[in-house]
């Protein structure tokens, strides 16, 4: 289940991305209004987390853009705690409004509550593609009924792919999603190594991938051939 996080503070964004990924979500992070606007146009998300104040725009406008496209839930994360901004956010269709600083457990609880309201929480816990099944609430992966043991980074890489099934992801997009505050450093060269290792663990034939397909000059696409 892919969440859109729009936050211009890199430290906050890294911490949230790591924590949400640990909870089984895939996170697309955009630091600017323009990047978020493009993501909304080109991708689908289960839920959006928007900061209100952005370098080149505001979260209110992004919320309107989301709601015009689909009934995707939106939660605002912002330091603006005055009543006027809270009312404005809710009036334009936001599902919740959380002021900074906030506790991570509170945010996770509110995310689950909103997703249940939209019927998405029950779908979050299992992702199945062909013979491959990911139980995100347990962080366990099975292939043809046999459990596949993955490292933390391999698991997060698989979640990124599975949450964007059918979409072509550039190496830059994958690297951005993998970067987190836990100290894991992944560059372009090591990404190749991790994709190779992941293929060796989940593919029936790594030389002829069934799930992780290379799209020449563009990146990778996840899904059955």
From TrEMBL:
Residues 2-115 form the Response regulatory domain. One of its GO terms (cellular component) is protein-DNA complex. GO terms for molecular function: phosphorelay response regulator activity; transcription cis-regulatory region binding. It comes from the Bacteria. It holds the Pfam family Response_reg. The keyword Electron transport does not apply. Residues 124-224 form the OmpR/PhoB-type domain. Keywords: DNA-binding, Phosphoprotein, Transcription, Transcription regulation, Two-component regulatory system. The modification 4-aspartylphosphate is found at residue 51. One of its GO terms (biological process) is regulation of DNA-templated transcription. The keyword Transport does not apply. Residues 124-224 bind DNA. Signal peptide: none annotated. May play the central regulatory role in sporulation. It may be an element of the effector pathway responsible for the activation of sporulation genes in response to nutritional stress. Spo0A may act in concert with spo0H (a sigma factor) to control the expression of some genes that are critical to the sporulation process. PANTHER family: ALKALINE PHOSPHATASE SYNTHESIS TRANSCRIPTIONAL REGULATORY PROTEIN PHOP, REGULATOR OF RPOS. This is Stage 0 sporulation protein A homolog. It comes from Merdimmobilis hominis. The lineage of its organism: Bacteria, Bacillati, Bacillota, Clostridia, Eubacteriales.
């Amino acid at each position: 289940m892919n969440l859109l996080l729009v936050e211009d503070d890199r430290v906050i964004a890294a911490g949230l991305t790591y924590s949400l990924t640990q909870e089984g979500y895939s996170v697309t992070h955009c630091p600017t209004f323009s990047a978020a606007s493009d993501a909304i146009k080109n991708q689908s998300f289960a839920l959006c987390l928007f900061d209100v104040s952005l370098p080149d725009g505001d979260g209110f406008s992004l919320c309107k853009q989301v709601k015009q496209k689909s009934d995707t839930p939106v939660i605002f994360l912002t330091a603006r705690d005055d009543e006027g901004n809270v009312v404005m956010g809710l009036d334009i269709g936001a599902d919740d409004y959380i002021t900074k600083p906030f506790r991570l457990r509170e945010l996770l609880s509110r995310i689950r509550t909103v997703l249940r309201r939209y019927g998405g929480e029950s779908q979050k816990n299992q992702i199945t593609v062909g013979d491959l099944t990911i139980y995100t609430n347990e962080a366990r992966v099975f292939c043809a009924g046999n459990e596949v043991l993955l490292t933390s980074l391999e698991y997060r890489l698989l979640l990124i792919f599975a949450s964007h099934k059918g979409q072509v992801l550039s190496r830059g997009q994958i690297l951005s999603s993998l970067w987190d505050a836990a100290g894991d450093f992944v560059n372009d060269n090591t990404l190749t190594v991790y994709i190779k290792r992941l293929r060796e663990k989940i593919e029936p034939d790594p030389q002829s991938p069934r799930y992780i397909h290379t799209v020449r000059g563009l990146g990778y696409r996840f899904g059955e051939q």
